[in-house]
Specification:
Layout (H helix, E strand, L loop, with lengths): L6 E6 L7 H11 L6 E7 L8 H6 L3 E4 L6 H15 L4 E4 L6 H9 L4 E6 L4 H5 L3 H17 L2 E4 L2 H8 L9 E3 L7 H4 L6 H4 L6 E6 L8 H13 L4 E6 L5 H10 L6 E5 L4 H6 L3 E4 L8 H8 L4 E3 L14 E3 L6 H13 L5 H8 L6 H12 L1 H6 L3
Parallel strand pairs: 1-2, 1-4, 2-3, 4-5, 5-6, 6-7, 8-9, 8-11, 9-10, 11-12, 12-13
Length: 382
Amino acid sequence: MTAARPLEVLAVVGAMNRGGIETWLMNVVRALPPEEVRLSFLVHGDGPSDYDDEIHALGHRVLVCPLGRDVVGYARRLAGILRAEGPFDAVHSFTSTFSAVPLAVARARGVPVRIAHSQTDRRAVVAASGLPRRLYSRAATAAILRTMTTGLACTTEAAAFLFGPGAASDPRVRIVPNGIDLAPFAHAAPSLRAELGIAPDRLVVGHVGRFVAVKNQRFLVDVARRWRDADDDVTLVLVGDGPDREAVARAVRDAGLEERVHLVGLRTDVPGVLADLDVLVLPSLWEGAPITLVEAQASGVPAVVSHAVTGATDAVPGLVTRTPDGADADEWARTVLAVAAAPRPSREEAQATMAGTPWSLEHVVPLLRDAWSADRRGSGRG
């Protein structure tokens, strides 16, 4: 009997660098035997991405489709890739409102399963934008609803953003949390204090994320200034890279905080970084379901987050504290110190709690495979 060919899935992403959703996707890739599911990552940049080598080593692919200067040219290039590299069982787009374009091309090329995946809630941002942005968002949602066969979202809020107010009643829309592999966080050894020369009795507060305006790292420099002025023994560590990194570094220098604030760049040892933190801070201006927050809870690390971070990511009771809308740097500084001093679940207790929640990768992978294989189940194809 002829063995069934693997499911062929084209995942549309910007690039496979060390961002939140990309790192989550790599967790998924590592859990997928390529003889059962083969992922082809469609990237929009010409240069190599951080995860390219590992993707190839695991038996999956990276395909390049530059955005170019116009949507029509992009659509033609994508159609050519679908024709030359297919057939694909599913096209799964992670490009927010731009998903309208790859899904339309996929429908025209006869791809049976077309998935738009929402990872954030930007409704407040769109509402505060000008008329062109609001009209674009509305048109993109309408186009996505016409062309998708399935809509996935990490939270109900993210679903409402991309799929509109009818998302909750649309049978095509499903919630798939950004579940993680818990194992790397269960016994990770601390990796920051010794490297940075931080005393064992000093509080270490950390942020992990891309240096962009929405992540609000510049605000954390103001919080660190409050700790310095109060002579609190706190070190702030900022992990990541991005276009705003130099501006944040300059703010650190201007405030004279070089001994108290460390920008350590991209790290491959995030479990070890989290194991050394006393508190994670996420002052985001808007968010979806930050994977770093899920990882912190898997590490037993308490977090102080802005009101913009959805409560859907609260997997372990007692580990996440939200600041109210409009909280200033003084309030953040006080809240972080209070959370650091409060009792908390142990890492072992946090792991046991998360193992039974949808934030475990074991829960998520079957949901993705189910979505990708919808046409095979319906047609009986193997």
